[in-house]
Amino acid sequence: MSKFAKKPKPLPAVSTASLPDIVFMLLFFFMVTTVLREQDLLVEQKIPQATQLQKLQNKTLISYIFIGKPKNTGLYGSEPRIQANDVLIGTPDIVQWVNQERDLLPEADRGLITISMKVDKDVKMGPVSDVQTELRNADARRVLYASSTKVPN
Amino acid sequence: MYQNYLKLLDKMAKNKNRMSNEINAGSMADIAFLLLIFFLVTTTIASDKGILNILPPKQDPNVPPPDIKVNERNIFAILINANNDLLVEGEYRRTTDDLDKDIKEFILNFGDPDEEAVALFNSLPASLKSQALRRPESSDHPGEAVVSIKTDRGTSYELYLEVFDAAKKAYFEIYAERVGLTADEYRALTGDDEASKALQDRGKEGIPMAISIAEPNKIGGN
């Protein structure tokens, strides 16, 4: 019985010396993964949700096009507009923009350019299909409908 | 007096030296936390996730569109109007629930398979074989089956994406089941290395992802 009747030893205090290390580790993780937004969004962006998402490996091949209602409705009106880089462009300018983006890529990858279409939920199919027609004209036929993961209910 | 003062200064300097031998690192964690919280708040983890779609090539206005004859039964027609109502194979629907299951059934119908399709059918795992309903009014075989999505200009993009998502889901589930993966695992295949490329190709072989997106009608939009 004496074996079990030992007096409980007082627990030594948990060392917090490694706390800064853990915190630094987290800090570095977030510092590395952070992408500071390099462009101001001029249009509203509420990205729709979907389930069948695919991730693209090569981020350099992706160019972004934003479609949505302008934030500054006084200046740009309330109809959905297209933003490429940091300006609003009209539909006919898309071909030129795609060609500019394509020229930035190495020659071997030019055929693989992918346009990530970040379209606001409230946009109708009309503008989206106009953009797609222009992308076909520019022969940039790989399109990624940017969407976030839907949690199945 | 002056010497006294010097002595005092000397003492102070010495004291200072002894003090600075060890910097108190206790506040390090606080500083790190502060930075951590800053980055936590400002981080938007870049998400290049989305649904990939390959648009058809540009049509030459001088060349008339090729006259392709596809039997009605080989087309799974999904119409979405400007009021966001769905018409799936002539039937009105309120939601996109179970649309993926219907599309999957349609693709795997094997109503009237030719020789090649019979070979394809025999190569499928039993779980997929059992889903072949062989209905005469549905698709002949997966090589012929086309899922067609047609919208109006006034259709909401969100609903269009939902329908497109359902069609993609049906195909990915078939591909994944064929190679014995879950749909999530199959979609995560990169095709970078030999093994994953082989898996990808084995899933797709003979079952092309035929999702046709028609030019929208000029209704309800601008």
UniProtKB/TrEMBL annotation, chain A:
<dbReference type="GO" id="GO:0005886">
    <property type="term" value="C:plasma membrane"/>
</dbReference>
<dbReference type="GO" id="GO:0015031">
    <property type="term" value="P:protein transport"/>
</dbReference>
<feature type="transmembrane region" description="Helical">
    <location>
        <begin position="12"/>
        <end position="36"/>
    </location>
</feature>
<keyword id="KW-1133">Transmembrane helix</keyword>
<protein>
    <submittedName>
        <fullName>Biopolymer transporter ExbD</fullName>
    </submittedName>
</protein>
<dbReference type="GO" id="GO:0022857">
    <property type="term" value="F:transmembrane transporter activity"/>
</dbReference>
<keyword id="KW-1003">Cell membrane</keyword>
<keyword id="KW-0812">Transmembrane</keyword>
<keyword id="KW-0472">Membrane</keyword>
<dbReference type="Pfam" id="PF02472">
    <property type="entry name" value="ExbD"/>
</dbReference>
<dbReference type="InterPro" id="IPR003400">
    <property type="entry name" value="ExbD"/>
</dbReference>
<keyword id="KW-0653">Protein transport</keyword>
<comment type="similarity">
    <text>Belongs to the ExbD/TolR family.</text>
</comment>
<keyword id="KW-0813">Transport</keyword>
